[in-house]
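Please go through this protein, sequence plus C-alpha cells, and consider how the sequence yields the C-alpha cells. Keep your notes short.
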Amino acid sequence: MSATLTATEAAIRLKGVTKAFGTGDSKTLALDNVTLDLPYGELVLLVGPSGCGKTTLISIAAGLLDPTAGEVEVLGKNLTRMSGTRKVKFRGQYIGFVFQQYNLLPAMNAVENACVPLLIAGWSRARALEKATEVMLKVGLGNRLKSFPNQLSGGQQQRVAIARALVHDPKILVCDEPTAALDAASGRTVMGLIKEVALQEDRAVIVVTHDSRVYDFGDRIVEMADGKVGKISTLTPGERFEHT
C-alpha cells in the first residue's frame, strides 16, 4: 500500500495502545489502552499535565517507542509489525520532528543545519542546500542562511528546526513543546508559522504543549490525563479553548 492516503483516512491510528515502563513494583503505566485517530489536514494539540503520557504517545505514533500492547498504524502502515530497520527508514522518509531543544549543530550554519535530513538520505550537497534554501525562505530566514546557531535568537533557531523538519516533505510533523523555551510573542510566531507553512491537506501536524497561550492555533485539542485520552475538542476559527 502506498503511504499516501486520501484525506478522509486517518494519518495515525492508535488501537488499544498501552505502554508500561519497568516491572513488578516499579512498573509504571504511561499509556493505558489508548484508541485515537489523528487526521490529515489538521493541527492537533495534545494537552494535559506533566507525566500524563503526551510525549510517550507521540513517541509511539512516530515509531520511536514500541507499545507494550495494541497496534499503531501510520500512513496505512502497521508500525508494530515493522522491523527496527524498516521503522528507521520509514521515519526518515515520512516523519519530521520539532523539539523544545533545537538540537542544531553548532559548527554548521542555518541552511546547512536545515539540509541535514537530505544529506542523510543521500542527496548531493548542492541539491540539498538548494532545497533547504527554499524551505528557509518559507520560514522567513532568507537573510540568515549563513548565520550560525549562536548568532540566532531562540525563535530564529526554532524556525531553522522547523525548516529542517520540513525539508524532506514529511507526511507527519511531530512537535514536542516547540514553544516552551520561547517568550509569548516568539511562541505565537512559531505556532503561526507551523500552521501556515507546515499544515497541508495531506499532512498531519501533532503538537504536544503545556503552553495555554497557543491553544487557539489548534484545529483539534486532545486532553490527556493519567495515560488516557479524555475530551477531544474541535475548534472553529477564532474559537477559544476552555481547558477542563
User: Anything to note?
Assistant: Residues 1-8 have pLDDT under 50 and may be disordered. The beta strands are 10-21, 28-39, 43-47, 69-74, 77-78, 95-99, 172-176, 204-208, 220-225, 228-234. The chain has one domain: 10-234.
